[in-house]
Amino acid sequence: MAAYPQTARASATGDSPADLRRLFDPRTIAFVGASEDPGRNVARSLQATMWAGFQGRILPINPKYQTVFGHPCVASIDDVAEPIDVVMAFVGPDRLLDVYRSCRGAGFFIAVGDIVPKGSPDADRLAQEILALAHSGWPRIVGQQCVGIVSPETGAAATISTAVDETGLPRGPVGIISQSGGIVSSLIERARKLGGGFSHLVSSGGEFDLTTPDYMRFMIEDPATKVIGIYAESVADYAALLAMGRLAQARGKPVLLLQPGRSAAGAAAAQSHSGRIVGDRQVKDAAYRRHGIVVVDDLDDLLVGGMILSRHRARPGTGVGVVSLSGGYAAAFGDRIHDHGLRAASFSPPTVARIKAETNQQNPANPIDAGGRGRPRAGYLDVLRTLEIMDAEPDVGATIYAETLFSYMEDIVDGLPQFARQAAGPHLVCWQAGPMVEPVLAALRQQDVLTCTDPHTALSALRAFYDHAALAPAPTATDGTAAALPSLPAGALDDGAARDLLDRFGVPFVREAAGDTPEALVAASGALRFPVALKGDLPGCLHKSEAGLVVLGLADRPVLAAAAEAMAARTPGLSGLRAQEMVADGLELIVGVKVDPDVGPAVILGFGGIYAEAMGPPVIEMAPITPAQADAMVARLDPKGILAGYRGRVLARDRLIDLLVAVGRLAAAGGGRLKEVDLNPVIVTTEAAVAVDVVVVAGSSVP
């Protein structure tokens, strides 16, 4: 086979992303083992390439045939004179390696099956050999265990996907990278059902060679791709993935990620409270957010959420406006808005006045019931006018027309597409009915209106839209004053070492006195304000209360002396005693650090005390954090404003922000040398935010 002029190949580590254009916009696609046998994948693949409208050369390779599906067939890949861009091989596993070795100079090799035979005694050696070839003049490998690529933008298809048929391909602005071939096929079919389309889809499979970040880099540079959707069951290189997320964010291309099976097992092994309440999944989600990647929960989010983001960016309003001709459906839809972490928009007095005056609706509560006024054929006019008014409401970020069945429903096709095109924010149609409404939905899709058949699809996609709007860029620099992490022993630090570590990084701690004996403690406590709490330091004990090492409410020094002597007598092995001022009438919070081995350290903020269960889960941000990010953490944790009105007093939010930033500095300096940090509780008063207890667990790799 003639050698193709060699260039640097695509790589997430810095090579030119333009090289993958040869994969998604090939001139020649070769099919080794070509056949018209309908029972073989190769026949399906050849037909898919033709059905996709591929304008390049289709090159069947098989010594048994003269032609395959009307295309001239050659006996061997060695007989091909011109360069080949993409090779698909449909041969037995015992021959696949030999076919690959014969493809020097080809652009890409799509491995539908395993590139190295399963059970081979030399599997590791063969894998390294093939990877070395792939990086030295032989084709880069797509897969293994994949369905190939489909490119509606270029008309190219080298795939065994059953979703590619005579009906053509849904073309649009969303690029898809999926480790599951079935997901690729399903998304193509869902686009036919819901509307929207794709620039390119690649089934990356087992990612033997090319990986998700490689494909991301191509799509970031590709002008036809406006949004990138990823389905990833595993990530081999988090650093590369997050780097591509940052690059996409810098280029203004949203990235949506569906990642099933992200384990929370790490929380089960945690030694600190904050480590137990936050698992690996939450930390990785925080890392994705920090690096411009939106995590979604459903397959349709990649399509519908991607289409929304390809057309719209965030508006100042963050509410959802909904209108329906069914009062019952409007009410039910309102509940689902809240279930998806969204909120129904609040209408300003001018908006309420306009709705009343221009649509004759006297109770325009959101979601709006626009039906039931005895004008069955004119109802859609009220819907359209209501949507236009809602779209102009400052608190509305997106609108939904939610519907069931009604007379003359086909009339809505006359005006709804024009509204959707002109709306300032995203607009979705959610029509939860059956076959009777399908002609209406098909007519709307034909005019580029995004349609859904259930509330979950619509609202989950809007959740992705709002989550993208909430992304903040990663900090570009630190303040340059962070202290270095000292050498630490592996395991849980004793109380003195943990407190010294907090002091080094400026984390405020409650005033206390310490002593090795009861007498020394009492002598050191002269500057404290009573009442105080007595705490005993016992090596290896992380939870003092359960061990009887905490005594509260000691009113004066004689009472402290008696309590300290009693604790020392009943607890052999104490390494020290501490007396802490008791912080009265403050709000208890939990602040911690959890270090994920893949993505690094995260800062955790949650409610403690009586609010721990009632106020929802903690919030997480990757370290380090800026004051603005710390402030956003507080806002996410406390949307009800407890800090602003705790028992009628305004608590020191600014001091809490300072504490969070300091903990973030500690976490960032620790890198992989810290496992967990737990400040439980942190008490916020009107004047201060201070840690009361601390647990620090260092990693086993500490120097």
UniProtKB/TrEMBL annotation:
<feature type="domain" description="CoA-binding">
    <location>
        <begin position="23"/>
        <end position="116"/>
    </location>
</feature>
<dbReference type="GO" id="GO:0016874">
    <property type="term" value="F:ligase activity"/>
</dbReference>
<dbReference type="InterPro" id="IPR032875">
    <property type="entry name" value="Succ_CoA_lig_flav_dom"/>
</dbReference>
<keyword id="KW-0808">Transferase</keyword>
<dbReference type="InterPro" id="IPR051538">
    <property type="entry name" value="Acyl-CoA_Synth/Transferase"/>
</dbReference>
<keyword id="KW-0816">Tricarboxylic acid cycle</keyword>
<dbReference type="InterPro" id="IPR016102">
    <property type="entry name" value="Succinyl-CoA_synth-like"/>
</dbReference>
<dbReference type="InterPro" id="IPR003781">
    <property type="entry name" value="CoA-bd"/>
</dbReference>
<dbReference type="GO" id="GO:0005524">
    <property type="term" value="F:ATP binding"/>
</dbReference>
<keyword id="KW-0067">ATP-binding</keyword>
<dbReference type="InterPro" id="IPR013815">
    <property type="entry name" value="ATP_grasp_subdomain_1"/>
</dbReference>
<dbReference type="Pfam" id="PF13607">
    <property type="entry name" value="Succ_CoA_lig"/>
</dbReference>
<keyword id="KW-0436">Ligase</keyword>
<keyword id="KW-0547">Nucleotide-binding</keyword>
<dbReference type="Pfam" id="PF13549">
    <property type="entry name" value="ATP-grasp_5"/>
</dbReference>
<protein>
    <submittedName>
        <fullName>Acetyl-CoA synthetase (ADP-forming)/acetyltransferase</fullName>
    </submittedName>
</protein>
<dbReference type="Pfam" id="PF13380">
    <property type="entry name" value="CoA_binding_2"/>
</dbReference>
<dbReference type="GO" id="GO:0006099">
    <property type="term" value="P:tricarboxylic acid cycle"/>
</dbReference>
<dbReference type="InterPro" id="IPR036291">
    <property type="entry name" value="NAD(P)-bd_dom_sf"/>
</dbReference>
<dbReference type="GO" id="GO:0016740">
    <property type="term" value="F:transferase activity"/>
</dbReference>
